[in-house]
Amino acid sequence: MAIDSLVLGAGQEVGKSCVVVSINGKRIMFDCGMHMGYTDSRRYPDFSLISNTGDFDNALTCVVVTHFHLDHIGALPYFTEVCGYKGPIYMTYPTKALAPLMLEDYRKNMDRRGEDEQFTSDHITECMKKVIPVDLKQTVQVDKDLQIRAYYAGHVIGAAMFYAKVGDAAMVYTGDYNMTPDRHLGAAQIDRLQLDLVITESTYATTIRDSRYGREREFLKAVHTCIAAGGKVLIPTFALGRAQELCILLEDYWERMNLKVPIYFSAGLTIQANMYYKMLINWTSQKIKETYATRNAFDFKNVRNFDRSLINAPGPCVLFATPGMIVGGFSLEVFMQWAPSEMNLVTLPGYCVAGTIGHKLMSGKPTKIDLDKDTQIDVRCQIHQLSFSPHTDAKGIMDLVKFLSPKHAILVHGEKPKMATLKERIQSELGIPCYCPANNETVTVPSTHYVKADASETFIRSCLNPNFKFSTYSSVDKSYLDSKYSKAASGLQVSDERVAEGILVVEKGKKAKVIHQDELLLMLGDKKHEVQFAYCFPMHTERLQKTRTEELPSADTLLCDLDKCTLINQLSMKLSNELSDANILDLGEQLQVESFRVSICSKNSCPHRLSHSVHNDSESVFLCCHWSLRDEKLAWKIISIMKSSSPHTT
Amino acid sequence: MKFTCLSKGGGFHFSPCHMLNVSGFRILLDCPLDLSSLALFSPVPVAHQAHESLDTDSVIRKKQKIEKTLDANDLVHAEPWYKTVKNLHLWDASFIDVVLISSPMGMLGLPFLTRTRDFSAKIYVTEASARIGQLLMEDLVSMHMELRQFYGPEDSCFPQWMRWEELEVLPSELRKIALGKDCEELGAWMPLYSAVDVKDCMRKVQTLKYAEEACYNGTLIVKAFSSGLEIGTCNWTINGPKKNIAYISSSIFVSMHAMDFDFLGLRGNDLIIYSDFSSLDKNMENDDTYFDPVTSSSGRDDVSNLEEMAASLLKDDESAEEIEKLVFICACALDSVRVGGSVLVPIDRLGVVLCLLEQMSLLLESSSLKVPIYIISSVAEELLAFTNIIPEWVCKQRQEKLFSGEPLFAHVKLIKERKIHVFPAVHSPELLTNWQEPCVVFCPNWSLRLGPVVHLLRHWCSDPNSLLVLESGVDADIALLPFKPMAMKVLQCSFLSGLSLQKVQPLLKILQPKLVLFPKDLSCKIQISEANMIFLFSENETLRIPSSKESTDIDIATDLASKFRWKTFKQETITRLEGELFMDHGKHRLLSGFQPANSKQQRPLVHWGSPDVKVLLTELSKMGISGTIKQVTDDAKSEDDAKSENAAAIIDIHDPEKALIDVRETGTVIIAANENLASHIVKAVDIVLDGI
Ligand SMILES: [Zn+2]
Ligand SMILES: [Zn+2]
Ligand SMILES: [Zn+2]
User: Fold this and answer.
1) Architecture of the structural domain at A212-385
2) Residue ranges of the Metallo-beta-lactamase domain (chain A) (predicted)?
C-alpha cells in the first residue's frame, strides 16, 4: 500500500497550491489555487495530469480547500465551471462565506488589467453552490471509506489544516498556518494523530522570528512618522485577512494616540466584509471572542470608504487598497500616483509572489519600475516591509512536524533553497524522511496497513490488568498544540512482557486470532510439557554456625524454623540491595522473585543436587532453587549473588 | 451492557434520563429538571395577597380537607424548591464515568450533580447547547433570586411544606406534583443551585462540535449528531470495543432554526436506544399502528433505495404545519393589539421564539400598526447575540444567509431598527421610559411562577382584550390559579417536539440496527413484528443486553507482523506476539516497539508433546554434551522396571560438567550448576518438543 502525492502547484515555489493525493483508492485534491505571478496558462495547475480525458468526477473523490487566499482557491471556479468538475468540494464555513468576496475582487481587478477573463461572476456563484461547509473537528464521512477533518490553522479566518483517513492510512495537509496567535486569530491547533504523511507549507523555512510586539511597533512607527509629516500611506492588501488584522492594530493605535487622520478602505474592501467577520467571531482569537457581546472588534470607528477623487486630495491619510502585492487594479492605480513623492509610504506584507510589483519593490531599492513598454513609474516613496506574518516560522514548522511525528513529510509552498535546508533538518533532527517535489512531480510513500485479528478476552484482560510498568498517556504531557481539545483523548499503552504472552494464530480461511499462551494448548488439543530448571546447592554461613552452637548443643542436622527464616531474611536483604528493580517476596521459609523460588532444603537426598557427597560439613545448608524458562537470566543472577554472599560455598 | 430508564421525562422541557452501562463505564444520559412542578408554588405574592394567604378561613379549610375546586391559596407559599429526576438520587454520583447531554434542557439539573463530592465524570455537551444551557441556568438563578428576596433566607434545610402533616392536607392535584404518582418523589426536591454552582458546573463540561470525536479513557468514542429539535441539540453515538450504540433523543427531520436531524450520521450502529417520547405527549386521535420494524430487512436495501427513503423522510416534513401555527399565533396577536390589548408570550423555546419574532414583526409591519415588541429576560441580550454567531449550528436556509452576508436571524436588524426592544428585567429604567401599550412581550418562564411573566400576567389578567400564548403541555388550570379570575384570552399551542411514529419504521430501516431498545409506553401504539430485535423498557427497570461479540478486534501493524517468527502446526500457523499494545480511540493496536525485536528472548516459553529421550541424547551429543540414560518409572528410584519409552527417565550428563535432566510425561526439569550448560540443554529440549 502506498500514498501518491502529485504536486500540481506550490512545488518549490509559492503560488497555485494544489496537491492531488491518492490514498487507498481515494483521490483527494488539496487546494486549487492560482499563481499571481503569471498571466498565461502557468497561472493554473495543469489539471490534465489528473485526467487526460477531462473526466474529473471519476478521477477525484473530492476537493478540499484550506483557506480563501487566491493561491489556494483562485483556480476553483475555473476547475468547476470551465473544466467541469462536479464532485464534492469541502471548506470551512468562513472560507465558503468569504471566498466569493476574494474571487470577485480579483476578477474585477483582472478586468481592469484587460486580461482574458478566466471565469465570470456567475462562475463564482455556481462554483460556491457546490461547496459543502465543514466545522472544525467535525469528522466528515465523504464516502464509506474516506474521512476528513478540519483543524484550526490560524493564518486567516477560517483557515484549516485537513486530516484525511482511508482505511488504516492517514495524512494531514496543512495549507498555510500560524503557530503563534496574532491580533485577531488564535494559533494552529491539532490532535496527536497517527500519520503516514504530512504535507506542510514552508514559506519561512529558515526564518526564526522573535516577539511579534516589537515588529508591530515598527510598523506603527513607520505609519505614524509618515502621516505626522503629512504623507500618505498605501497598504495594498487583498480583500480579507491582512486588512482586518492591520485595521484592528491601527484602530487600537489611533484610539491610544488620539489620532484623527482618516483611514480609508478602497471599494474592494467593503465594510460588508465586517458583517461576515461579526458572524464568524467564533473563528477568531479568544480575546476577541470574549468581548464580542460588548464591543465587536470588527466595528471599525475610524474607517471610511475611499473615493477615487480623494487620491490627490491634500493632507495625510492611510489607505487600504486591493489587490495585495500590487498585482494590478486599484492598488496599482494609487501606487502610480503616490510612488513619486518621498513623503509617502507603501507598506508591503512579508511575502510577495515573484513577478508582482510588490516583489520588485522588496528586492533591492528600485528607483524606477517598468510597468510595460510605455509606462515607467518613478519610485521615490518609502517602502516598509511588514516583518510579522500570518505564516509560521521555521521553528513552528519543526514543532508541528515533531508533534505529529508522521512517517514521512513533504514540503510545499516555499522557496527551493530554503526548503532544502528545512528538509535536511527534518531528516536529521526528527529522523523523518522528507521530500520537496517540484511541480508536476509525484512522491510515493508507503502507507500503514494493519492485519486484523480477533483478540481473546483472556489476552485483552491480561494486558489491561494494571501493573507497575503500566502507563496511561494523557494530554498532560502533550505539547501546547492541542492543550484545549484533546483532554479526552487519553489512551493506554502496554509495553511489557504481557504482550509477548499473546500468540497469533492464523488458519487458512479464517480470521487471524490472538490468544493468550495459556489458551493455546487447549486450542491445539495438546498437553502442556513444563520445562523448568532446578538447582540445589550447599551454602556455608557463619551466622548459622553461631546460632547452632549456642542454642542447639547437639549437632542436629535439622535446622529450626527460626533459623531458616533468619537465613532467608538475610538473603532477601542481600538481593534487594543488588537487584533494585526486582520484586522480591519474602515468604518466611521461601524467597520468591518472579518465578524463581529458593528455600532451605532439608531432604537428605534431594533430586536437584548434583553432588550428594557434601564434605559432611555440618556448617553447610542446601539451598534448593527452581525456576521457569522465562526467568532464566534473572535466576542465574540471583544464584551468583547468593553464592558470592558466602565465601565458603562449595 | 445494562440500560436503566430513570425517567421518561415529560414534554419538551423535561428530557428523559437514562443510565447506561457499557464496556464497564457508567454513562448518564441527560440530567434535566422538572420545572412543571414549580406549579406547586405560589408566584411572588402581591402585598395584600400575602396577608390573605394566612387568613384563618383557608387554614381551617385546609385542615378539614374539604375537596373543592383549587384556588390560589392552596398553592405552597414558600421559596420554591426544584424537582430533579426522581430515580437519579438513588445512584451514587461518584460512580458515574460519563454524562452525555442532548439539549440545553437536558443540562438544567447538572449543577446538582457536579457539586456533589467525588463527582468526577466527564461531561460532554455540544458547544451551542452548553452556551444556551448556561444562559438558561443563569436566568433561572436570577429569577429565583427575586423570589428569595421576597421570602428571605431559608431558616431550615427542611422546609415547612415538606412535612407530612402539610403534604397530607394538600389537594390531591398538588399532592401528586409534590409526591409523584407513587408517593416516592419527595426525595427528588432540591433547593436551587447558586450562580457559583452553575459556573463550577460549566467548568467541568467538555464542549464538542457536531460529529467531533471525543475519546473517553481510550476506550469509548462518543460523537454528537444534530437532532433538529433546537439549536445545539443532539443524538449520540457511543462506540466501544464491543458495542456500537446510537442514542436517539427527540428529533425533528426538518427545522426552521436548528440544523436538521442528521440521521445518516447514526448509521452503522448495532444497537439503537430510542428515547423520543414526544408522541406520548400528543393526544393521538387515531389508534393507527405505525410500526413494522424492519421485517423486510432480510435483504439489504440497495443504496439508491436507501437514498430514496432518506429523501422521503426529509420531504413530507411537518415544518409547513409549524409555520402555519406561527402564522396563526401572530394573527391572534394582531387581533388583540388591534383592539388595544397586549400579547404576552411566555414561551421558552429558543427556536420558536426566534421564528415568532420574525413572523410577528413582519405581520405588524404589514398591518402598519406601531406596536413595539419587548423581550424581557436577564439573558435575552446575550442569547440573541449568540444566535447570530453560530452559523455552524443552524438550518440550511439560515446558513445561506451567512453566505450572502446577511444576519442569520432577523432580530439583529429589528433591534437596530428599534422594532424589538430588549430589557434585562421589568424594573429596568430603560423599560420604564420606553414602555408603551399595547405591546407584544416575550419573557420567561413558561411555568408562570418565575420571572417577568408573573408581573405582566398580574397586570393584564383582567383585560379581556389581551392575549396569553402558552405552550401546550402546561397544565393551564393549575398554572393560572394565582391569576384568577382570568379575563384575558388564552391560546394554548403545541409545537413539534419530536419524531412522529409513522417515521420510526422508515428511520430504523435506514439505520439497520441489530437491536432496538424501545419505550414500553409507546409499544402499544406500534405493531411489533420482529420481537427478537426489540427490547422494551420502562421506568426504573434494568435491561441486560447480551454482548453480540465475543472477541475484541486488534490491529497488528504489517511492518511488525512481517518480522514475526512463524511456526506451522497441523492446520495452524502460529507466532508469539511482539511490539507494544496501544489502546486508543476504542482500538487495540499492536505496533513496533522501541526495542529492536532481536534483543528479546527468542526461545519458546510454552512446550507441548512428549520428548523422546534417545533423540534428546543425540541432540545433546551434537552439542558436545554426553550423558547416559537412567530409566526410572516414578519418583521411587527403581531403575530396572522401566516399562515404556515415554516413562520418566533421568539423563545423567557427565561431560563437560555434571548435570541432570529429569524427563517425565508432563514436564522436564533441568538441573545444572552452570548457566551455559543449562542453556545448551534447553536448546536440545526445544528441538525434541513442540513449543512457542
Ligand atoms: Zn494563505
Ligand atoms: Zn498560501
Ligand atoms: Zn533440594
Assistant:
1) 3-Layer(aba) Sandwich (3.40)
2) 15-231
Angle at B358 between CA B472 and CA B333, to 5 degrees: 55
List, for residues B43-92, the tens digit of each pLDDT value.
Answer: 876 544 444 444 445 555 555 555 567 788 888 888 899 999 988 888 88
The pTM of this model reads 0.84
Burial B488-522 (b: 16+ CB within 10 A, else e): bbeeebebbbbbbbebbbbbbbbbbbebbbbbebb
Among B385, B601, B672, beta carbon nearest to A535: B672
- Give the position of cell 516413562: B647
Q: Which residues of A touch B683 (CB under 8 A)?
A: none
Q: Which range, of A393-407, A509-523, B365-379, averages the lowest pLDDT? A: A509-523
Residue with cell 494530554: A475
User: For B423, phi and psi rounded to 5 degrees?
Assistant: -130, 145
For A251, the enclosing helix (H) or strand (E) is helix A242-257
Phi, psi of B449 (to 5 degrees): -120, -20
Alpha-carbon radius of gyration of chain B: 36
Contacts of B691 in chain A (CB under 8 A): 531
Interface check B302 vs A, CB under 8 A = no
Residues 47-66 of B with CB under 8 A from A: none
Cα–Cα distance, B107 to B130 (Å, whole number): 8
Q: What is the mean pLDDT of residues A197-209?
A: 92
Question: Could you tell me if A351 and A135 are in contact, meaning their C-beta atoms sit under 8 angstroms apart?
Answer: no
pLDDT given for residue A216 in this prediction = 87
Residue B678 at interface with chain A, using a CB cutoff of 8 Å: yes
Q: Which of A276, A454, A532 sits opposite B405 (nearest CB)?
A: A276
What is residue B210's DSSP assignment? T
ipTM of the prediction: 0.85
What CA–CA distances, in Å, run from A375 to A37, A109, A327, A369, A371?
19, 19, 15, 9, 5
| Sequence-separated (6 or more) residues with CB below 8 Å from residue A20 | A5, A6, A8, A27, A28, A29, A30, A49, A50, A60
Q: How far is CA A487 from CA A191, A275, A476, A480, A553, in A?
A: 10, 34, 8, 12, 71
Nearest to A191, CA basis, from A417, A445, A475, A452: A475
Active site residue: A81, A201, A216, A251, which one?
A201
Q: Which CATH architecture has domain A2-208+390-446?
A: 4-Layer Sandwich (3.60)
Comparing B264-278, B398-412, B540-554, the range with the smallest average pLDDT is B540-554
The C-alpha of B344 sits at a distance from chain A's nearest C-alpha, in angstroms, of 27
Q: In Å, what is the CA distance from A483 to each residue of A163, A178, A480, A572, B162?
A: 18, 16, 5, 47, 48
Q: Answer yes or no: do A97 and B405 touch at CB < 8 A.
A: yes
Please name which of B409, B458, B354 lies closest in space to residue B72, comparing C-alpha atoms: B458
Q: Where in chain A is the domain with CATH 3.60.15.10?
A: 2-208+390-446
A495/B580 CB distance under 8 A: yes
The total number of residues shown for chain A amounts to: 650
Do A491 and B215 make contact, defined as CB atoms within 8 angstroms? yes
Kindly state the cell numbers that stand for B229.
429539535
Residue A325: all three cell numbers together: 502585492
Cβ neighbours of residue B283 under 8 Å, at least 6 residues apart? none
Residue B636 pLDDT level (bands cut at 50, 70, 90)? very low
**What domains can be seen in chain B, in order of their start residue?**
2-41+76-315+498-544 (3.60.15.10), 318-493 (3.40.50.10890), 554-599 (no CATH), 607-691 (no CATH)
- Among residues A499, A460, A512, A487, the alpha carbon closest in space to that of B242 is found at A460
The answer to whether A201 is a known catalytic residue is yes
Q: According to the 3-state scheme, what is the secondary structure of A131-156?
A: EEEECECEEEECCCCEEEEEEECCCC
Are B137 and B109 within 8 A, CB to CB? no
